[in-house]
Design brief:
alpha/beta
């Protein structure tokens, strides 16, 4: 079952300025999809369109999950300035009307090993710990769709391993994950398929084998395929 269906003809920040065009893909239950592209390719705009944060869009976004619940982890952690970690969690649980949010919160706090930080202000914590707090907030409603933007930035090896384990657990529950990342070697090992963007357009998508076939690079890495396909003179003919 598709957790997310994206059909964008055009989208942007005003009707006379299209930032992305012809971006269409799905994220199925239990599937991890990598959203790949160079800086300025339209990845962030695509995510904003999915989250309903754009002022103008031609197309359709379909989210299939209980109560349309999704979890979102932005590239840069965002917190309320004067709330402690636990108060951030409590506010999210109450405002989103999450059943049994306290039990779920404590489970996640223990999983991410941040018990000693829950009464501190998030701004006083390391980037890696802040990232863990954002993951807790995203996972609190037990979403069936998870959107993660550059998840590995600022994480130490142990935290990265914990994140990877968490994604495996969520996928086993049927959660679909859309992950935007520049870390292509990691994405290659994790993702079921890839959406490749360039200059605001999705120029191809598919599994690594699909990309290797398009590139005529059997056994090629995701980076090799990306470099080949991103070449402006080549990708127009490759679809």
């Amino acid at each position: 079952m598709d957790r997310l269906i994206v059909k964008l003809q055009k989208a942007g920040y005003s009707a006379d300025e299209s930032v992305i065009e012809n971006v269409s893909f799905t994220v199925e239950a239990g599937e991890l999809v990598g959203l790949i592209g160079e800086n300025g390719a339209g990845k962030s705009t695509t995510i904003k369109a999915i989250l309903g944060q754009l002022s103008w869009m031609e197309g359709e976004i379909t989210l299939r999950s209980k109560d349309n619940a999704y979890g979102y982890v932005p590239e840069r952690p965002v917190f309320y300035d004067e709330l402690t970690v636990w108060e951030q969690i409590e506010y999210s649980g109450v405002m989103r009307e999450i059943p049994n949010w306290k039990e779920r919160a404590m489970e996640l706090v223990k999983t991410f090993r941040v018990e000693k930080f829950i009464h501190q202000l998030p701004q006083s914590l390391s980037k890696g710990t802040q990232q863990k707090i954002m993951l807790i907030l995203a996972l609190l409603p037990s979403p069936e769709l998870l959107i993660i933007d550059e998840p590995f930035i600022g994480l130490d090896p142990r935290a990265t391993k914990l994140l990877l384990q968490m994604m495996d657990v969520e996928r086993s529950k049927g959660t679909g994950i859309l992950m935007c990342t520049h870390v292509l070697d990691t994405a290659e090992k994790l993702c079921d398929k890839f959406i490749l963007l360039s200059k605001g357009t999705m120029f191809t998508q598919g599994t690594l084998v699909d990309l290797q076939t398009k590139c005529r690079l059997p056994g090629g890495s995701l980076l090799d395929c990306f470099d080949y396909l991103i070449d402006e003179d080549l990708h127009h003919g490759l679809g």
